Amino acid sequence: MSQTQFYGTTTMPLTVRMRRSPFWERSHAAGAQGYITYNNMLIATGFHGPQEDYRHLKSAVQVWDVGVERQIEISGPDAGKLVQMSTPRDISRMGDDQCFYIPTVDGLGCMTNDPVLLRVEQDRYWVSIADSDQILFYKGVAAALQLRVSIHEPHVSPLAIQGPKADDLAARIWGDCVRDLRFFRWMHVDVNGQKMILARSGYSVQGGFELYFEGHEGAANLWDQLFEAGTDLDVRAGTPCQAERVEAGLLSYLSDITQDMTPFEAGLGAMCAMDKDVGCLGFAALKNKQSPNRQIRPIEIAGGPLPPQGTFWPVTAGGQTVGRVSSSCRAYDFDCNAGIALMNDSHWDPQTNVQVHTQDGPRDALVKEKFLGRTS
Ligand code: THG
């Protein structure tokens, strides 16, 4: 075993149930400070401390082992039909080289996941899932309706290259053509003689790519190539950054989006085709849920840095509960605290004053119009 082998800790014992991607050894050796699980897999929590990871992501380039973004592969003559059954977004509008962010819903129109969808070939889809057992929905529906599909989790481990210098780094590996790749489009690139998918996407708003790395072989080699090519760009190992994603309003399933919420409550209504039935199993239910009385809003929380958040924080006004904060952070560049809140319609207008109840006591807070990390 290499010296980077992870032996677990008393608080996080070792078990094969917490799976690791082929990039795990390299990422761990680069100094991962801790892990959480996501899709029954380990993902690093940070490398150089929250503020330094944030500063570096916004100024340089990072390579992230996001193998936890598992793919569900659905192929066969009914593959498109089955994918469409899971989402109100009209997937017939997805171009061959496009990535589609799709709310997925159950028969009641409640969110089951919020994956990124790719059609990797005609009649073959990859659903790049957030943290839920979405594969069981597909297997259940396919079995019940005897659809002509096969469904499995392939050996695909996304590797993200994120930050303002991501284009420079990727261009050194795959050539200047990657610079022309548009947002949420993908192309094929060569990785040690194997054809793989490189998309302009990723769980930050700093720009960059996700390589859908296939198999195990050559993973460490690719990692080393990226770090050799990017030395003068100050490339570092990273992982999705809580402060960066919260201030930008990138949503997290099971935190900001819960199983009882509709896409309309999650602010994803614009992605739902409601004029005609495109084949989503939740369509009829969603028809009656298009005007929610609670919805996700940006919130600014007064005072110094917040305590870490492990529970929803109630939002109140005049002693009444009017919402909840699901994610929060120090928005270092803005010298304030940012949060993602689910607000009742009575208090969701911008500039509404409310209180947020952390485990360390209440704070004044203000509902905002836009997320701080978004320019548009
Ligand atoms: N990339 C890939 N798979 C993923 C994620 C990812 N699976 C898990 C998780 N992240 C799924 N959730 C999200 C949430 C937000 C975005 C992508 C996946 C995202 N949103 C953009 C935004 O809000 O600006 C773009 C949305 C759009 O307009 O299309 O990127 O990150 N492969």
Task: Tag the structure with descriptive keywords.
376 residues, alpha+beta, Gyrase A, domain 2, Alpha-Beta Plaits, Elongation Factor Tu (Ef-tu), domain 3, 3 domains, six-stranded mixed sheet, six-stranded antiparallel barrel, 8 helices, 21 strands, 17% helix, 31% strand, globular, binds (6S)-5,6,7,8-tetrahydrofolate
CATH architectural type of the largest domain: 2-Layer Sandwich
Beta-strand content bin = 25-35%
CATH homologous superfamily caption of the largest domain: Probable tRNA modification gtpase trme, domain 1
Q: Can you give the helix content as a percent range?
A: 10-25%
Question: How far apart are the first and last residues' alpha carbons, in Å?
Answer: 49 Å
Order of helices and strands: HEEHEEHEEEEEHEEHEEEHEHHEEEEEE
Domains counted in the coordinates: how many? 3
Lateral strand order in the biggest sheet: 12-13-14-11-3-15
Main β sheet profile: 6 strands, mixed
Question: What would your notes on this structure say?
Answer:
The structure is a single chain. The protein is α+β, with helices and mostly antiparallel strands and 376 residues long. It folds into 3 domains: 3-69 and 155-245, Probable tRNA modification gtpase trme, domain 1 (Gyrase A, domain 2, 2-Layer Sandwich); 71-152, Alpha-Beta Plaits (2-Layer Sandwich); 293-376, Aminomethyltransferase beta-barrel domains (Elongation Factor Tu (Ef-tu), domain 3, Beta Barrel), CATH 2.40.30.110. The chain has 8 helices and 21 strands. It has a 6-stranded mixed β-sheet, sandwiched between helices. Strands 16-19-18-17-20-21 form a 6-stranded antiparallel barrel. A hairpin with a 5-residue loop joins β6 (104-105) and β7. The longest helix has 12 residues, at 134-145. Residues 69, 101, 114-116, 128-130, 158, 184, 201-203, 210, 250-251 line the site of (6S)-5,6,7,8-tetrahydrofolate.
